[in-house]
Structures are given as C-alpha cells and as structure tokens.
Write a structure and sequence with these properties.
heterodimer, A: globular, B: about 500 residues, alpha/beta, Rossmann fold, six-stranded mixed beta sheet, globular
Chain lengths: ~325, ~500
C-alpha cells in the first residue's frame, strides 16, 4: 500500500524539493526554519487545494481553466454577503462558497458531458463569463478590509494545534481525496476514463458523467478556496488570482500528472504545488529581481516536466521470461 | 496448406501486349504475420484485372505496395518490364499508378478542385498555385467522367456518391496509366454503379490498365477481363475471366483444409439464454433475430462491413437500436448502456483490444475488476481485500504470469494483455460472452489456445457468440453460423450446411 502511494515519481519529486531547500538554505539559512516552512505551506495551501481539483480533471483527459475565475467570483459573492449580513456564521459562508463553486463546476461539467464541447473551450468561455459576473455584481468596486467582519477575516488565520486553519483545510483535502482516489469506485473511474476512454466505456463506465464529476469537484474546491483567499488577503475585486489557473496547471504537471490523462496522484499534485510554492517564496528572500523570478519559475517548470517525461519514457514491454519474474 | 500454382513469372498468353505493371514474387512480412508470400500480379493496358480473395487474403497489402505506401521485403515491381521502385506514394504517382481507395481519403474543408489537385496543383508565377488553371482543369476532368460537380464547392457539401466521383477525378488528375479501384462500389447506389461501369469502360478504351478489387461476383463477371485469386497472402490462381465460373472462384478463394487445429467438442446446447428479436438501427442493420442456448458457440460470419460488429455493439449498449427487444433467460431486459449489459450478464470482448480493451496505465488487478466494481463495493467504497481476491482468482484461472498484480498492464506482453482483458470479462460472471474476432492478429500457437479456451467456456455452460471473418475458425468452432450481409441476416446454417462454399455464397450474395 505504502509502496503504491509513493511510487518512484513522487520520490523523485521529494528529492527535488529537498535539493531545492538545501540550495536555498545555503544562501538564506532562515528559510528552512520550521516556522518559515509552515508559513510557506500555509501560503501554498490555496494552490494545493486547486491543484487537487485540477489533477482530477486532467486525469479524465480534460482541463479546467476557469478555477481562478471561479475562485474570484465565489470570493466576491461571499464578501458581498458578508458586507450585507456581517453576523452570518462562518459555517454558512463556507457552505455558500463551496456550494456556489460546485454549481459553477457543474456548469462546466454539463457543457463538456452533454454538449461534448472540448473542455479547453468550455472553461476558456466560463473563465471570461465568471470574471464578467464579478464585474456586474460589484460594478468594478472593491470590497475592502474594513468592510469585512472580523470573524470573516479571522477564520483562515485561526490557529489549531499550531497551524492556521487554512493549512489544516489543505491537509484534510489531501487526505480526503487520497482516500477518494484510492478507495472509491468514482476514484477508479477517473483513472479508467482518462487512461483509455474506449475501454472504460466497454467496462460500463460513463465517461462523460465521470468528467462531469471531475469538474464538479474542481469547482467545489475552487469555491472553497475563493472564501479562504478573500478573507486571508482581506480584499475582493474583479482581478484577484488573475492567471492563477496557469500556476495550478503547472503544479499538476510538475507533480507528474500526465496531460494526456490517466496518470496522476493527489500526493503528486501536493508535491508539485509545494515545489512551485517554495520557489515563489524563496526567490524574493534570496534577493533576486522580480523579472528573474518569473523566468526562474518558468524554467523550473520546464525542467521538472522534462525530468518527468524522461521518467515516463516507456521502458519496453516485459516479454523475456526472466524479466517477467524480476518485476 | 495446399499450393496450386507457384509461378515465378506472370502468366503469358493472357493478352497480346506486355504488362504495364507487374509484381514478381513479392513478399511482405509484418511482425508476426506474413502478409504476402511470393505473389505475382500482372496488369495489361486496356484490361480490367479483378483481384479476388477473402478478408485478410492480402489484397489491401498489394494495393499499398503498388502505391508506394508499403515497401516489399522481397521480389520486384516491374514497370513496362523494367525494374521499378516506389519508395513513396509520390514515386508511384509519378510513374502513373493511381488508386481509388476503399475509404475515400479526401478533405472536407477544401474545395473540390483543391481536393483533386492536392499535392500536384498547377503552378503559376512565383511558384504559387494557379487557381484559375486548377479550377479549369478540375472541371475538365469532372466533365470527362460525367460528374455534374462544381469544382468550387467545398467537399463537405457533397453527398457520399459525389465524393466518390471526386476521389475518382483525383485519381485521374495525374496522367494515370494504372488505375487501382479498391471496392469502388461499396458506397454507391445501383444507378451510380452503372455509371461507374461506364467510366471503367471509357478508361479501358483509353488504354489504361485497371486493377479492380471487389467482393461482388456479379461485378467481377460484368467488367473484368482477367482474374487473380489470393488466399492467405499467396497467389492461388489467375487467368482469363472467360475460363472460370463463380463456383471456380469461390473454390479458389476458400478451398483449404478446414479440419486443422480445432478442439474436439461435443456440444450440448441447453436452455435458451439470449433471445434477440427484430433488432434494428437506422443506418447499420435491421431485423436481427436469433436465439442462443447455454453451452453453445454461435458464429457470426460476413464480409467486413456486413454490420456484425455494429450489431454486437448495439446489443452491448454502446449504440442505441431503433427497434427490437432482448430477453435473457426468458425475461425481457432493457439495455441502454454497457453497464446494463454487464449487469444482465452480457459481455463483449471487442476486436480492437488495444484501443478498447485494457487500460495500460492501471495495474493488472484494477483492470480485471473494472467492470465488476459494483459487486466489490458498498456505498461507493471498494472493499480492497475482495477486489484482490477477485483479481487473483481470475488471473490464476487464465494462468496469467506476472510477478505481481500491481504490475501495470502496459508493461505486459501482448499475450498477457489479452489474458487480462479476458479475465476482466470472466470476472463479471457473464451468461453470454461476445468475442469479436478473437484471434485477429494472434499467432498460430496462441490461436489454438484461444480456441481451446472458447471450447472450455462453452463446456462450462457459457453461451458464446463469436464474430469472425476467418472461415476455418467459423466452421471449426461454431455449432451454428449466422451469415450477415449488408446489415441483414441472410442465412442461418447448421450441421452439414456449414461448408466454406455456402458461407461465401451467402456472404457475397450469389
């Protein structure tokens, strides 16, 4: 079980992250202090949440480019709800955020499933639509820190057992979805539908419906992250998390999720997100100009993917009798 | 394996002139399969040569060698008696060899004229395409074959028959000396076929050599001058069409030892398990009905495109029938999806096992249990211990050799992948198993194993439907055979009626 959980691809990524941390600590020892690493993890939590959803979508041979817009729209909606009804319990806010995100994800899923529109087209469209909605709702105005209630802002920062709630949510999501992917029929269907849609169909799996559920999960996580994002940064406006969907896809790809579908793990998405998060957090502290920072994170993505592609190279079939027994 | 003719050189005395294009002792091998073995073929100016053979006899391979798509492993291509080589399709075209393919290879979004001249369009100033000249020439060619098609129309606006005429026009747009027609009438109506015959006559009058591939004997006897028969990639006979009868050709096509390697079985058909009545689809098949009993192997024979696989896919819930009903054990069932079919005990092992069979990125055990997940899970959660037990049971039953059930299927050999696919379906504990071309692309040794396994399944009381295009297999394995042609059942044969000749006769409609 453990062996299957951490296959060689994940181990490779853990190694890469370790090397990265050693390099950074040689110039800035403080970076690897436990408290700073906890900060980095907390900072990366939104990326982890979205990467898990995106991983599932990519598994089924789709892509969800609307996650950041979904996040921004849900964030704006809950902020405005908070302005109107500051005393609403946080639980209700969480339900609204997750519920709205789920609906937006379902909308993507329905278009992909029932109308058979290519996912990249669907989510490019809904990405723009969602952003447009934010503008319509807010008239382009910001919801600022002073308009939000204290409880609304405090929730993701509240510390439980030494870690902020935001981090705990990411940890719970990782565990929850690891179980879903490994132990449920739906999780198995995600792998089957992306690995070989024809064979999956013949095995009685409805590929379209499976893709619908992938988009739904991605949407739910994006919605949840929407609230966490606006409350953490204490601001909501049209352009929050602009371009963040590309970071999310990059995290998946770094994490060994095959863009062709059928290959990927929750742990991989987590490690991919952490890799990206560490680079983004470390570059400013080691005093590198912002322009170089962009170029370096871009290069890191390409190097990671190139390494992955090498690892994924077909090793050839096992035809020799002795090779058959060696595996 | 009998060998009637073994001629190193094309027969002489068929015609007066020398052959424009000849194949001499051509051999072509694909991994594991010898597609052509020392075959010869000669095409003469102003003559139509019919190439006849069963599915898999090597006809398409010959076409691909003549048009430069495949390179022969041995033997020579002779053009006017001179050795020639067609290293690429363009080389064949330059030598005046052109083909009208079975499935038309055209571009929907381009205009008719662009389709006709793609790759060899007339050039004007600066090497740019001279559109005016191209359209004018296209119109000339289309008029020449009596097609009323505007060269400026987009191809996608044309009907299937007109598309076919465009394909013919394309073939004639190079200065062709040899025209290959690979089942050109398959998609045409009766009237259009008549027009095609006229076209063939006019090509003959222009002195072009024509290779005509067809399954339809009436056509062959109507327009061919010579015939060549292939079987199992070997030349069986050739000569003038006037010297043979239909019966002679059928005999040459199929005449072989049928009682070769098939397992002996005493069939004891039991109670009816599957009854299909009036199954129909708007475009693919109609009025399909039969009864299948436990312990029985029912063969489905027909030419490629007779609608057998299409019907099976519909029975399995992949496509929706427009009419018809299915009964399992005497109870009417509704099958709207493959999941329904598996639920009701029908499984389908598709022909294209690579594409439709296994999921290569998943480990063996997950592949095996995929269609049975419902049985080994509760409330959407899988019981992993049960899953492993199920996978182990069926992989052991099939003697699948892999160190671990965790091995990804993509890492297995072809034979073992096949076992995974079969284990997967047996694990659903079906009542009816549909095997579509179970031995296609399988080497001789493994074929015997597959046949023995089928016999064992039937002996255990499973009802087996076998779709096969190989006559020996159909005759050697089946208790009964249903023959389909053009989407309909044309015959149901049993006992002494099951002979190669009757099968071919019904399948080809003669």
């Amino acid at each position: 079980m453990l062996k299957r959980l951490i296959s060689s691809r994940e181990a490779l990524l853990v190694g890469a992250i370790a090397v990265l941390l050693v390099l950074i600590s040689s110039r800035f020892p403080g970076f690897v202090a436990p408290s700073n690493l906890a900060n980095v993890f907390n900072d990366t939590s939104p990326l982890i949440l979205l990467a898990i959803g995106q991983m599932i979508v990519i598994l089924t041979k789709c892509i969800d480019l609307s996650v950041a817009a979904n996040l921004a729209l849900t964030g704006m909606v809950v902020s405005m709800v908070n302005v109107v009804a500051p005393d609403l319990p946080i639980v209700v806010i969480l339900v609204i955020a997750t519920g709205l995100g789920t609906l937006l994800g379902m909308f993507n899923g329905i278009l992909v499933w029932k109308l058979a529109i290519p996912p990249i087209v669907v989510t490019l469209g809904t990405m723009t639509i969602f952003r447009g909605f934010i503008f319509l709702l807010s008239d382009g105005k910001w919801v600022n820190s002073h308009e939000m209630s204290e409880g609304f802002k405090a929730f993701p920062r509240a510390e439980v057992l030494g870690l902020p709630v935001l981090s705990w949510i990411a940890i719970i999501a990782v565990i929850l979805f690891s179980v879903v992917m490994a132990r449920t029929t739906l999780g198995r269907a995600f792998y089957a539908a992306g690995g070989n849609p024809h064979a999956a169909t013949y095995a009685g799996i409805n590929v379209g419906r499976t893709q619908f559920w992938a988009f739904t999960i991605s949407g739910a996580l994006a919605g949840l992250t929407g609230y966490l994002w606006v409350s953490r940064f204490a601001v909501a406006y049209v352009d929050i998390a602009g371009g963040f969907e590309l970071d999310v896809v990059a995290a998946c790809v770094i994490g060994g999720v095959s863009i062709m579908g059928g290959i990927g793990t929750v742990v991989g998405a987590l490690l991919g997100a952490l890799f990206l998060g560490i680079i983004k957090n470390a570059l400013p502290v080691v005093d590198i100009s912002p322009f170089w920072q962009l170029a370096i994170s871009g290069a890191a993505i390409i190097i990671a993917v190139a390494l992955n592609a090498q690892a994924n190279r077909k090793k050839g079939r096992i035809i020799l009798k002795r090779a058959e027994h060696a595996t | 394996m009998l060998k009637q003719t073994d001629r190193p050189v094309p027969p002489s005395g068929l015609t007066d002139g020398p052959a424009v294009l000849a194949l001499d002792g051509i051999t072509k091998t694909f991994p594991g399969v010898k597609a052509l073995s020392d075959v010869s073929l000669a095409l003469y100016p102003g003559k139509v040569t019919a190439l006849v053979g069963e599915n898999g006899a090597g006809k398409s391979t010959v076409v691909k060698i003549l048009t430069g798509i495949y390179q022969p492993d041995g033997g020579a291509i002779l053009m006017d008696g001179q050795r020639a080589a067609f290293p690429a399709p363009q080389a064949a075209a330059r030598s005046g060899v052109t083909a009208i393919h079975q499935e038309t290879v055209l571009f929907d979004e381009l205009s008719v004229a662009e389709n006709i001249f793609l790759g060899h369009a007339p050039r004007g100033a600066f090497g740019l395409i001279d559109r005016k000249a191209m359209v004018a020439q296209a119109r000339g060619i289309l008029d020449g074959i009596g097609a009323q098609i505007d060269p400026d129309h987009k191809l996608k606006d044309l009907g299937i028959a007109n598309k076919h005429l465009v394909a013919i026009a394309r073939a004639l747009s190079i200065d062709a000396r040899v025209v290959i027609m690979d089942e050109p009438t398959a998609a045409l109506s009766h009237k259009e076929i008549e027009e095609l015959y006229e076209l063939v006559e006019s090509l003959k009058a222009q002195g072009k050599a024509i290779l005509f591939i067809s399954h339809k004997f009436d056509e062959i006897f109507r327009i061919a001058d010579n015939y060549t028969v292939f079987r199992d990639g070997q030349l069986i006979g050739d000569g003038s069409i006037g010297d043979v009868t239909e019966a002679d050709l059928v005999k040459m096509m199929v005449g072989r030892d049928v009682s070769q390697i098939f397992p002996k079985r005493t069939s004891r058909p039991g109670a009816p398990v599957l009854t299909v009545t009036g199954y129909a689809h708007p475009t693919e098949f109609e009025d399909i009905g039969f009864t299948l009993r436990t312990g029985e192997i029912l063969g489905f024979y027909g030419l490629v495109g007779a609608g057998r696989s299409e019907f099976m896919q519909s029975l399995f819930g992949i496509t929706r029938p427009s009419a018809g009903s299915v009964e399992i054990d005497g109870v009417a069932v509704h099958i709207a999806s493959p999941a329904d079919a598996v639920e009701n005990g029908i499984v389908y092992v598709p022909e294209d096992r690579g594409r439709q069979g296994a999921i290569l990125d998943l480990p063996i055990f997950q592949n095996v249990t995929l269609p049975s997940l419902g049985r080994i899970s509760g409330r959407g959660f899988m019981r992993l211990a049960e899953e492993f037990k199920l996978a182990r049971e069926y992989t052991e039953r099939l003697d699948l050799r892999a160190a671990s059930l965790d091995t990804h299927v993509g890492n297995l050999s072809g034979g073992n992948q096949q076992k995974v696919v079969i284990a997967k379906w047996l694990a659903t504990q079906p009542k009816v198993i549909i095997l579509d071309e179970p031995t296609k692309g399988v080497d001789i040794g493994s074929k015997a194993a597959v046949h023995a396994f089928m016999a064992e399944l039937a002996a255990q009381g499973l009802a087996v439907v076998m779709v096969s295009s190989e006559i020996p297999e159909v005759l050697g394995m089946s208790d009964r055979v249903i023959v389909m042609r053009e989407g309909r059942i044309v015959a149901e044969l049993a006992g002494p009626e099951m002979t190669p000749e009757t099968l071919v006769r019904h399948a080809a409609g003669i």
